[in-house]
Write a structure and sequence with these properties.
single chain; mainly beta; Neuraminidase; five-stranded antiparallel sheet; five-stranded mixed sheet; globular
Length: about 400
């Protein structure tokens, strides 16, 4: 039986009339890898992504088939939260082939960012080093992204340990607990500082874009320029920060505040300019947020477009919120039960079509896909039956 365009349109209308939307499931899209810190869609091929192994290997996966590593970054420290942590494609990657990588240097313990040409490490150029205390192997952040402004952003944790005892996240004279913003459009090594960074010609490091962060393990930009940061909490609260329009100089409140709550170990009162998160959840729900991104794809259905997806590494839960809801907390949706997989989330990234890739530290990557709800299936059956009955009478 072949349905006409008119018949198909009528059937679609019958489905939409139910108000139902698809549930979500995780479909394995590459496995057999190890200690994954992220998976990043190839801007030129929606069927390919590059998985990062903590130990330095960059693994291409095409149509779910895992290939051999195309490069292995050496000189990496992999203790604790150290390792190969970030990848970013240049906005002009299609023409210049530039790929940026971030990792913890085995000698200095700093977070290093390098630039390669099409993953060829022989072409590597050093861009920047972000110093980190050598006695702490945690809170490196390590994510790197290009904003819509063409600048490279780099997340750095507060230096590790507990409760940021030196209050480094509030110290605008170092790079700890910060989001940095630099211009890497030049042809040589190093970088330049954008003249509109908030601390240019003012006290503080010129490279700083935002501060007051504990461990911004993952951050992202929406297509409208809004900045989202999943900041890992201390003892009680995890948080999602958003800066509409990506305005520089924002203070997100740590070490005095954990989410919207006073830190009992604070060494100073909360700053008057501290900006609260748009959403927070307690450690009764989860204990280590993995930030994601605002979904702008099409495969999951219109209900999910504009929702911010994020997860928890410890409790292996996946959520989304509507960041523009009048009450963001009430917009929360959880999808864990329907995923069909237990995922230790270290990454939630878009492929080239904006569809969702879920990275599990254990060595697998999944695509998030939709599954029709029972109500939708009933609508399909009733709608099709009604249409066929009308066609039989005509």
């Amino acid at each position: 039986m072949k349905l006409s365009l008119r018949t198909t349109t009528a059937l679609t209308a019958a489905i939409l009339a139910t108000g139902a939307f698809a549930q979500l499931t995780a479909v394995q899209y590459g496995t057999g890898m190890s200690q994954l810190t992220g998976a990043y869609g190839d801007p030129l091929n929606p069927n390919r992504y590059y998985a990062l192994q903590k130990t330095g290997q960059i693994v291409p996966v095409t149509n779910g088939v895992v290939g051999s590593p195309i490069a292995t970054v050496t000189g990496i420290d992999t203790a604790g939260e150290r390792g190969l942590l970030g990848l970013a494609f240049d906005p002009n990657y299609a023409t210049n082939g530039r790929v940026y990588l971030s990792y913890v240097n085995n000698q200095t313990k700093a977070l290093d960012v390098i630039r390669t040409n099409n993953f060829n490490l022989a072409t590597a150029q050093h861009i920047i080093s972000l110093p980190h205390p050598t006695n702490a192997s945690n809170h490196y952040g390590g994510n790197i992204k290009f904003g819509g402004d063409g600048m490279l952003y780099i997340a750095m944790g507060d230096g590790g340990g507990s409760n940021d005892p030196e209050n480094d996240a509030q110290n605008i004279n170092n790079m700890l607990g910060k989001l940095m913003r630099i211009d890497v459009s030049g042809s040589g090594t190093g970088y330049s500082v954008p003249t509109d960074n908030p601390f240019v010609n003012a006290p503080g490091l010129d490279e700083i874009w935002a501060y007051g962060l504990r461990n911004p393990f993952k951050f992202s930009f929406d297509t409208n320029g809004d900045l989202y940061i999943g900041d890992v909490g201390q003892d009680a609260w995890e948080e999602v920060n958003r800066m509409a329009g990506n305005i520089g100089g924002v203070n997100y409140g740590w070490q005095a505040l954990e989410g919207t709550h006073p830190n009992p170990f604070a060494v100073a009162p909360p700053a008057a300019n501290a900006v609260p998160p748009i959403y927070e959840y307690s450690h009764s729900v989860g204990e280590s947020i993995t930030g994601g991104f605002v979904y702008r794809g099409s495969a999951l259905g219109s209900h999910y477009v504009g929702r911010y997806f994020f997860a928890d590494f410890v409790t292996r839960k996946l959520f989304s919120i509507d960041p523009n809801a009048s009450n963001v907390a009430l917009s929360l949706e959880e999808y864990t039960a329907g995923l069909g997989a237990s995922i230790s989330y270290t990454g939630i990234e878009p492929d080239a079509n904006g569809e969702i890739l879920l990275t599990s530290f254990g060595g697998s990557v999944y695509r998030l896909q939709s599954v029709p709800e029972p109500a939708t299936m009933v609508a399909l059956g009733l709608g099709l039956a009604a249409i066929l009955k009308r066609k039989k009478k005509s």
